[in-house]
Design goal:
This protein has 110 residues and is mainly α. Helix 3 links the parallel strand 2 and strand 3.
Length: 110
C-alpha cells in the first residue's frame, strides 16, 4: 500500500535491510500468504539494493519455503509466541520452539 515515492524514500534512507510487512492487519500466524506477495517484494527491490526480509504472518515451513524463493530473509514472530503460550512447562516450550525452528529452517533450505 506504500506509494512509489515513499518506497523510494524508504530505500534511500534504510540501512542493513528493508523489512517488508507481508499483509495488512494485526500480527499473528496466518494460513495462507497473500497472492501477490512475490510481486510486491519485487516492487520493493526496484527501490533499494538492500536485502528484503519478509514477515508478518509467516508461521509454517511452507510459508518459509515460499518466501525464501523471493525474499532475502524470513521473519517469524507470532508463531513462536503461540507455541510458547500453548505449552504447559518450560521443557515443552523449549521442545516446541526447537521443533518450529527446525521446520522453518527445513522450509528455507528446501
Amino acid at each position: 500500500t506504500t506509494t512509489t515515492a515513499r518506497l523510494t524514500q524508504i530505500g534511500e534512507l534504510s540501512r542493513g535491510f528493508v523489512y517488508y510487512v507481508s499483509r495488512l492487519g494485526v500480527t499473528g500466524a496466518q494460513r495462507d500468504l497473500p497472492a501477490q506477495l512475490a510481486e510486491e517484494v519485487e516492487r520493493v527491490r526496484t527501490a533499494t539494493k538492500l536485502p528484503v526480509a519478509v514477515g508478518f504472518g509467516i508461521s509454517t515451513s511452507a510459508h518459509a519455503k515460499a518466501v525464501a524463493h523471493f525474499g532475502d530473509g524470513v521473519v517469524v514472530g507470532s508463531a513462536f509466541v503461540d507455541r510458547i503460550a500453548k505449552a504447559s512447562t518450560d521443557a515443552e516450550r523449549i521442545a516446541s520452539v526447537k521443533t518450529l525452528a527446525r521446520e522453518l529452517v527445513a522450509g528455507v533450505r528446501a
